[in-house]
């Protein structure tokens, strides 16, 4: 269903409503005054369908699931939503018309940026619902997304790489520790020599739901192997969703401790086996939690297992000195370093990263500097020997 450009009736075939819940939600709107007050809108994700083109039929279930999770997380009762067709979602976010439309547009922008990597006004389809009949016929009038947003955003390009990182709407509770919640964070991976984006990096932050505080990057140490396995599998599933709908490759991280367990390893490999790899869009896997105490045979086994299913296998290094001798024979594609806490003083960052890069080149010529804060940090990383950088930006 294409959203109308002027007020007119739009019929919703009840057979296309995806569940009894969807019908019940729409029926609740029929018997309320929210429609008459202008609080109900339709947002359309047909731009995602258009991008997927011939792959839409095979990937739409994955798109529906992801969009549903975003809407479920952002719209808590009494706010509600219902999928009305393949690409249309009825949203009532508030009993205040302006607030409801603003929230709906924000959700649409997040969804489009998640799948397409950009927020273009021409891709944003939003309409006010003027009435809903008993047989689910809607009268709608298109809204101007640029006017609703005050002219901000929607430039057709990725947001500035210097913007603050944006936390995804995707999250899930950690099994065995319901006080913890995992959230996905992403950044662009670029070739520092030419500035070209090659992939979207996806990694996980853990948050205490009671305090709202994020755990340190050493959070894997406090999870059991089974819980880490759930996090890894969810990360791979989300990465698969991104890869199917994005114009870039994906870069994901996984703990080697969970990959050492047959069940966790098999689940991740099964996810990767189902991906139809485009040679122009690499799948990059970064192995975490490797140090001098990690058995070399385990690293070699995991790298050998992953290599047939992805373009590159990296290791993120921590500690000093680096375990160069341990990694030299493991057939790695590159090494990575999280630079989040190294950039307070430019000269210190340059010296420390140059020391890392000099050692890393003994293992591989590809060196990834992750979590770079702005253009100046990218230039310093390139000067210090990095080949690729993770540029903090909003979702791709």
Describe the structure.
Helices cover 35% and strands 25% of the residues. The chain is elongated and about 70 Å long. Residues 1-16 and 153-169 have low confidence and may be disordered. It has 396 residues and is α/β, with parallel strands linked by helices. It has two domains: 8-148, Alpha-Beta Plaits (2-Layer Sandwich), CATH 3.30.70; 167-392, Alpha-Beta Barrel (TIM Barrel), CATH 3.20.20.450. It contains twelve helices and 15 strands. Helix 6 (225-245) runs parallel beside helix 8 (262-273) and helix 11 (346-360) crosses helix 12. The two termini are 26 Å apart. The strands form two sheets. An eight-stranded mixed β-barrel has the order 8-9-10-11-12-13-14-15. It has a six-stranded antiparallel sheet with strand order 1-6-5-2-4-3, with helices on both faces. The longest helix has 21 residues, at 225-245. It has helices at 20-30, 46-52, 56-74, 97-116, 145-148, 225-245, 256-259, 262-273, 296-306, 324-327, 346-360, 375-384; strands at 8-11, 41-44, 80-83, 88-92, 125-132, 137-142, 167-174, 177-191, 197-208, 249-255, 283-288, 312-316, 334-338, 367-372, 388-392.
Features:
alpha/beta, Alpha-Beta Plaits, TIM Barrel, eight-stranded mixed β-barrel, six-stranded antiparallel beta sheet, 12 helices, disordered N terminus
Question: Can you describe this structure in just a few lines?
Answer:
With 396 residues, this protein is of the alpha/beta class. It has helices at residues 20-30, 46-52, 56-74, 97-116, 145-148, 225-245, 256-259, 262-273, 296-306, 324-327, 346-360, 375-384; strands at residues 8-11, 41-44, 80-83, 88-92, 125-132, 137-142, 167-174, 177-191, 197-208, 249-255, 283-288, 312-316, 334-338, 367-372, 388-392.
């Amino acid at each position: 269903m294409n959203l109308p450009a002027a007020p007119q009736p739009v019929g919703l075939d009840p057979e296309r409503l995806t569940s009894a819940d969807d019908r019940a939600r729409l029926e609740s709107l029929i018997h309320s005054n929210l429609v008459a007050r202008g609080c109900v809108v339709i947002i359309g994700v047909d731009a995602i369908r258009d991008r997927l083109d011939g792959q839409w039929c095979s990937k739409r279930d994955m798109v529906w699931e992801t969009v549903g999770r975003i809407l479920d997380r952002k719209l808590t009762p009494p706010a509600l939503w219902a999928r009305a067709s393949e690409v249309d979602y009825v949203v009532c976010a508030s009993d205040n018309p302006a607030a409801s439309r603003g929230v709906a547009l924000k959700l649409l922008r997040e969804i489009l940026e998640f799948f397409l990597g950009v927020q273009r006004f021409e891709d944003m389809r939003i309409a006010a619902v003027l009435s809903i009949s008993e047989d689910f016929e809607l009268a709608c009038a298109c809204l101007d997304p640029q006017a609703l947003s005050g002219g901000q955003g929607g430039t057709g390009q990725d947001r500035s790489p210097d913007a603050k990182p944006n936390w995804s709407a995707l999250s899930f509770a950690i099994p065995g520790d319901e006080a913890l919640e995992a959230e996905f964070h992403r950044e662009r991976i670029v070739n520092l020599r030419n500035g070209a984006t090659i992939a979207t990096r996806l990694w996980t932050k853990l948050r205490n739901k009671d305090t709202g505080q994020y755990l340190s990057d050493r959070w894997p140490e406090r999870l059991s192997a089974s819980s880490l396995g759930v996090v890894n599998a969810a990360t791979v599933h989300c990465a698969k969703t991104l890869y199917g709908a994005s114009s870039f490759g994906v870069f994901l991280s996984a703990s080697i401790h969970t990959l050492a367990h047959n069940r966790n390893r098999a689940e991740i490999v099964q996810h990767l086996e189902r991906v139809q790899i485009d040679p122009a869009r690499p799948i990059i896997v970064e192995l975490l939690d490797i140090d001098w105490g990690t058995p070399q045979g385990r690293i070699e086994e995991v790298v050998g297992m992953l290599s047939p299913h992805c373009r590159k296998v990296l290791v993120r290094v921590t500690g000093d000195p680096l375990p160069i001798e341990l990694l030299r024979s493991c057939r790695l594609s590159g090494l990575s370093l999280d630079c989040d806490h190294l950039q307070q003083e430019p000269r210190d960052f340059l010296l420390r990263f140059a020391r890392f890069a000099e050692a890393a080149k003994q293992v591989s010529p590809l060196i990834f500097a992750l979590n770079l804060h702005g253009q100046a940090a990218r230039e310093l990383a390139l000067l210090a020997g990095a080949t690729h950088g993770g540029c903090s930006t909003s979702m791709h």
